[in-house]
Amino acid sequence: MLRFIATRLVQSLVALAIVSVVVFVLARATGDPLYLILPMSASQEDFDNARRYLGLDRPYVEQYLSFVGRAVTGDFGISLRARRPVGELIRERLPNSLKLAAFAMGVSLAMAFPLGIMAAVRKGTGVDRAAQIVSVLGQSLPTFWVAIILVEFVAGRWQWLPAGGISGFSSYILPGFTLGWFVVAGLMRLLRSGMLEVLDSEYVKLARVKGVSERRVIWMHALRNALIPVVTFAGIYFAILVTTAIVVETVFAWPGLGRLAYEGISSRDFPVIQAVVLTTAAIVAVVNLGVDCLYAIIDPRIRYAR
Amino acid sequence: MKRASATASVLLLILALMGFVLAGGVSAQPKTELTVALSSFSTEVLDPPLGGHLVKYYLSMIFDYLVGTTPDGQPSRDGGLATRWENSPDYKRWTFYLRKNVKFHNGDEVTSEDVKFSLQRNIGKRSTTGYAGPLRTLIQDIETPAPDRVVIVTKEPTLIIPTYLSRSLSTEGMVTPKKYIESVGDDVFARKPIGSGPYKFVEQVTGSHIKLAAVDNHWRIGTPKYKTMTFRLVPEEATRIALLRRGEVDVADVSRERVKELEKEGFPLHYRREEALLTMWWVLGPDGRTGPTKDKRVREALNLALDRAEIAQSIFAGRAEPAAIPLGLSWSFKEVGFKQTPDMLYPYDPARAKKLLADAGVGSGMSLDVYAYQLPGLPEGKTMAEAVAGYWEKIGIKTKLIPVDYPAFRKAWFDRSVPGAVGYFNIANRDWIGAYALLEKQAYTPSKPSDTVNDPEIDGMLSQVMRQTDKDKINTLIRGVYARLRSEHHGVPVVYLHSPYATSKTLGNWNPGSVMYDLFLDVLASGK
How many CA atoms lie within 13 A of B43 on its CB side? Predict the structure, then answer.
């Protein structure tokens, strides 16, 4: 197991190195950030001064080596737009995204588990059909539309919940639900299909024949075996929720990593773009590793070979 | 049993949510707090030389200017640190007399040394405000003969110094504490700014908000009505409006489309009338105008082809006025004595436009690339570009819409790599000095690469303005520039945009003013 983890860590580092090159090149391919930083009335002298002051006049190789050299120590440079250390911006915003993603995942799991299990156990009934409708709606309604509808009606017109920003537990509900609903749909369908497959298996039939209670059959025997794809999906989606909730964070004025990425991209803030992409890649790598390790715990048959 | 437990867990979840719904209901905004929701914060940097060229709303609360300005853009001896100023007979020495007993938020007294330090810093090479360059060229020295006196010595005679250092333009005139900045450095200062304004910095969460707290009794506004002022960054308009409805914000910038709906609900709407001029221009080639637009008749035809009244009504929801003068910033017209007469407004006359094209030998063979992009404060940008392209198609011009983002167009414009292509901007309206600064960049051939006009007669007029000390002569020159811009059709002025701000029903009277990038929230908060 340790060897497996060590190998995966090395692979992740290689992947991060490749990502750093790709993001460095692609960010600069978007254009000159000075056209956004400097006003229309800026002169050529202003451009030259700013370029020099922001270090954008150095050769690309020098810029890259400087960026990588500092990044390994956790220093991602200074934001061109905010003029603050990028590391500080990420430290400020990442916890907000983690909290929102955790809330969204909590909501998703709290809804998906009972729905998925009931849909499987009560296959073909009204409960099953209702769960499938929830699933279809969750996967087909665009996130931005759901977000704006909730803001407009639930927050704005009916005034039931806060509209935006972070201001206590209630401010998590609308953005968390918006983010989580899509995940509920996927989780529920996976769980339902996994449970259906497992409930039809021989060992479950044997358990029933032996007189094991239905509750124990479902929760102790069937569910555990149906969990593996669900764990994979939940893990991957948690990483996605943390790093790419741009639309939800923008609509709900949530100062998270997704919005930082959007602000960086739209203002061609190279240090921010590079740092956010690397942070995202690192989060995905860590989460994937964690998910793989969790498999071994859930299913003792899974062992990572020498 | 299992059904009951599943049902129970769902019911518990619903009850928990309802609890938060009931607990999180609308709370009335305390009257001691003012919260402003904005769609953009520009750079979010709280250091004047770095943060002031797009949004000054919160900077004007934290810092005082050397020269004050009234909400309608006139220099004011009441609103700045200088209680009076005078020029030498040769207009090369400007003496500013400072207000006494003004303190920074850390208790240090504001002196002439701070003013000198601030000016040098604000116009230094690190500045991104856009007006630092002309001041760097012009200012020879800054003297501090007494703690309450600053003398600015210029290389050439000039009238521009007080206005350039006032609230009516950018942030060059903002005064910052020398001792504090020298001890903590620029980076710390940008994160924990200290000024002498009516509100002091409390906290900033980038991407979220900037919170300020009132100074107890400030010379500018007395005892302020609002103990705190918070600027919230809320990019999505639906969210800003929802916050307004919930009473969580007091002021929000809104789009023109939503004005009617908000008015029906009883929310007061305040306008910054003619806040920006939406104007289009043709990119010059390396040696000036190229192609069909070299011919004045073609330029006139392209103007006559537009139905500006329809554009103002249908695209800008009636919150815009047809414009007549290319690069004509109307907030400067009164100051320089320029009268825009009814005959200057372009009529919608596609028939005459077609005839002019035919007379110019262009007919239906002409093609135009029209760059289409959104801009801050102009979500209708692409729609407007499409509409204009449609009008030109109707007079036989083949247009090609090129959707890009603005920086890509700006680069092409500055590089002159797409001669004849059309771009546009919503240029913030401003007073005569600001208008001159803009003309000097966009209508003055030596200002390559940003020039869009290439007219020797206009070059001659503009070159005289900066060094002219007779205001009447300056006015005559600028009037001449506007007249020629119009008569030679050096661009396509579309509309003047009115910018709406919705406020809470309890806010009361508010004049957001007609000064570039400022909302005069200190006047709203004034206890005087």
Answer: 30
Put simply, the answer to whether A40 touches B125 (Cβ < 8 Å) is no
- What is residue A224's predicted lDDT score, i.e. its pLDDT? 76
Interface list for B 156-215 with A (CB within 8 A): 187, 190-191, 205-209
Distance (Å, whole) CA B138 – CA B122: 14
Tell me if B9 and A110 make a contact (CB, 8 A cut-off): yes
| DSSP run (H or E) holding B470 | none
Determine the residue type at B415: D
The residue whose two tokens read 């009361």 is: B508
* Alpha-carbon distance values, B503 to A167, A252, B41, B157 (Å): 22, 20, 19, 45
Residue of A nearest to B242 (CA): A156
A217, closest residue in chain B (CA to CA) = B2
CB-nearest to A163 from B6, B129, B243 is B243
The ipTM, to two decimals, is: 0.86
| Contact at CB, B235 and A253, closer than 8 angstroms | yes
Q: What is the pLDDT of residues A200-233, one digit of tens each?
A: 788 778 888 888 888 887 777 777 777 778 877 8
Torsion angles phi and psi, residue A240, rounded to 5: -65, -40
Which of B11, B131, B239 to probe the A interface (max A CBs under 10 A)? B239
What is the pLDDT, as a whole number, of residue A306?
41
Could you read off the pLDDT of B245-299 as tens digits, one per residue? Answer: 999 999 999 999 899 999 999 999 999 999 999 999 999 998 888 889 999 999 9
Nearest by Cα to B188 from B53, B65, B43, B45? B45
Determine the average pLDDT of the residues in A78-107.
Answer: 91
% of chain A with per-residue pLDDT over 90: 31
Beta bridge partners of residue B174, listed in sequence order: B65
pLDDT in tens, A145-191: 999 999 999 999 999 999 999 988 999 999 999 998 888 888 888 88
> Would you say how long chain B is, in residues?
528
B449: preceding bond cis by omega (within 30 degrees)? yes
Contacts of A177 in chain B (CB under 8 A): none
CB-CB under 8 Å, B233 with A156:
no
A222 inside 8 A of chain B by CB: no
pTM of the shown model:
0.88
Beta bridge partners of B368: B399
CB within 8 Å: B2 and A255: no
Do the Cβ atoms of B206 and A155 come within 8 Å? Answer: no
